[in-house]
Amino acid sequence: MEIKKIAVVGSGSMGSAIAEIFAFNGFEVLLKDQNIDLVNSGIKRIKKILQGQLLFQEGRSSKEIARIETLGVVLSEEQKEAIRTKLKSHLTERKVEEIMGRIKPVVDYSQFENVDYVVEAVFENMDVKKAVMKDLSDHCRENAIISTNTSSLSITKISSFISNPERSIVTHFFNPPYTLPLVEIVPGMRTADATVREMMEFYSKLKNHRGFMKPIKVKEVPGFLVNRILVPVLNEAAIMLDEGVAEAGDIDTAMKLGAGFPMGPLELADMVGIDVTFDVIRILYEEYADQKYRPSLLLKRMVDSNKLGIKNGEGFYSYH
Ligand SMILES: NC(=O)c1ccc[n+]([C@@H]2O[C@H](COP(=O)([O-])OP(=O)(O)OC[C@H]3O[C@@H](n4cnc5c(N)ncnc54)[C@H](O)[C@@H]3O)[C@@H](O)[C@H]2O)c1
Known about the structure:
Layout lengths: L4 E5 L3 H12 L3 E5 L3 H35 L6 H10 L6 H9 L1 E4 L10 E4 L5 H14 L5 E4 L6 H4 L9 E6 L8 E6 L5 H13 L1 E2 L2 E2 L1 E4 L8 H17 L5 H12 L5 H8 L1 H15 L8 H8 L16
Parallel strand pairs: 1-2, 1-4, 2-3, 4-5, 5-6, 7-10
Antiparallel strand pairs: 6-7, 8-9
The structure holds nicotinamide-adenine-dinucleotide.
The site of nicotinamide-adenine-dinucleotide has 26 residues, from helix 1, helix 5 and strand 6.
């Protein structure tokens, strides 16, 4: 089936950024949340992503020219022009408007029968996701594909009582999807092979602002692939901070300078969200019943005191 029209349910940090990718690739997208104010916040977030990318790309050629000149190379005007042409922005104000024009805010499912593919990106909560999946299965065509962006929940369970679990699957994006290309494609127990093939094919043709997306097929295990490796690292960094092994800044510096991490684990936990990090490690602990996934008590205290990271201004670091 050719995917032409797409919907995204949940216009929070991930849903809005995922909708942006689809619109950037030329698709018409319905963006749904619980009420119009929430959808409009998502639309604002998308505009901000695009404006940020516009600025980033416009500044790229001057940064590259400055970088070369600091090496002592004197560039001619022709050489500078060649760099400007090579790094020319693929975004313009007009293109931004066109992309925004493809995103339609909605607050109900009345237009979902025309949709070929839906991505669910609501709260990481089994009951909420099950309810949304049920609504989607009631309102979408039988052959529409429904994927979830869950970080840690079982697709087999989320889609356990919908009418077409063969067309349901996980498509797990990474934050921020407009620069990180990976999508984990995770079939549930009843997902059809054709659905996996269609999703692998669809995502390998999509682009974000840095290049092609990279779908990878992953077996359904708690944490899938990346989070099963990454979240225990973030959790361990929090445990070590709590034990007083080193200051937060030193833990991050150590992993950047000693292990080549592009970001420190505590900085990354702040970016992912302390609540999301805590939820994933808790789920790994429960599902595998293994002490190596024991959640950090510091993470728990931070969630309890609403220190959730960048999204609300305070986590391991302050963002005020
Ligand atoms: N934040 C990350 O780094 C990240 C990365 C990968 C995957 N995820 C996953 O993506 C999903 C969304 O995460 P997020 O960080 O964008 O969360 P978020 O809290 O920013 O956004 C969730 C949105 O879902 C909306 N919502 C809740 N119930 C709804 C319903 N019944 N109908 C319509 N909208 C509803 C909320 O109003 C909110 O706007 C979660 O499953 C999360 O695990 C998050």
